[in-house]
Amino acid sequence: MFKDNYYFMMGDNKPYSEDSRYLGLIPERKM
């Protein structure tokens, strides 16, 4: 379950993307 106002982001170039798989959930205020 995700927290309110947090997002799981994934890049389109999976092997080279630094996304939520590495950084964790991204708060809405940082987008």
Radius of gyration of CA atoms, rounded to a whole number: 10 Å
Strand content: 5-15%
- Cα shape: elongated
Largest sheet: 2 strands, antiparallel
| Helix percentage | 10-25%
Distance between the termini: 20 Å
Quaternary arrangement of the chains shown?
single chain
Mean pLDDT: 91
Report the total helices: 1
Which structural class do the helices and strands define?
alpha+beta
Total number of domains: 1
- Low-confidence runs (pLDDT<50, min 5 residues)? none
The count of β-strands is 2
- In N-to-C order, the SSE pattern is EHE
How do the strands line up in the largest sheet?
1-2
What does this structure look like?
With 31 residues, the protein is of the alpha+beta class. The protein has one domain. 13% of the residues lie in helices and 13% in strands. The chain contains one helix and two strands; from the N terminus they run βαβ. Strands 1-2 form a two-stranded antiparallel sheet. The radius of gyration is 10 Å and the shape is elongated.
